[in-house]
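REVIEWER CHECKLIST
Item 1: Sequence provided? yes
Item 2: Single chain? yes
Item 3: Sequence as submitted:
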Amino acid sequence: MFGPEAVDATHVLMKDESGSFIQWLMPLAFVVCAGWVVWHVPAFILDFLPPASESLFAQISELHARKDVTPNLSGLFGGFADPVDWAALLAMPILFYIGMRTIRCAPMEFEQWTRFDRFALFVGRVTMMLILLMTGIMLYEVFVRYLLAAPTLWANELTLWLGGYVFLFSGLYAMQQRCHIRIFLLYDVVPRFIQHIFDMLSLLMIWVFAVALVFGSYKQVFVNKFYKWEMFGTAFDPPIPATVQPFILIMVVLIAIQATANLFADWNKDGATRSAHDEIDEDELEALRKAAGAN
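Item 4: Structure as written out by the authors:
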């Protein structure tokens, strides 16, 4: 599945459509639905895993009542999550699947991607949408703060919150694109079978780190942070500790899985050596020359 013969041949035809409208719509719609669900996670906690402690149950119930965007809607099935919450929750996997199926590989992206890489590619598109949203939020804050003298209580913390997800999602996308930092000084001078050993050792260390991190902190993260829905403790009070810390563990595991897929996909490729010239993007260099007015 992951060998050279498994490379998705459709990506050759997809490059010309990498800027199509659906490439913006699917990740943006997913971000909107995911944001709604994350903001209303306390409702789902109360519905699916209600705390046995009365004090904790009352604490999360009060938090949900205070943060609920649609307080006038009653919960479905006698619970706390209302129809909008359920609609957003059900839409998330549908939008993610459609986004993966309609993904288009841009010209500057890694060309020899497989069907398995659709997941990381769509996560990359979601990351791009988050960056655009962060930029829009910061521009809005500058406008209302300095021109209208009416600063918001939420812009800075929302940007901080989204920035954490951008950092985490970028790790998975960078692994799929093979654009993470690598040192080839020793790797390029050894035979291919030694390079395979290096690759397996690198993958082993990634998995050791991932397993150790999850094993050592899952209780602290998922029980003390997520299940208790720990907030940031500010005026806007977003659930940054309750959401970002669990996603650190999730993304570390996903990066390890992607690294495993990369190993299988690249196993039969020639171990061609690299030089400094290979790292130069000729298209970017030509664009810089034109911008500088050089011949």
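Item 5: Key structural point noted by reviewer: The first helix runs from residue 11 to 14.
Item 6: Recommendation: ____
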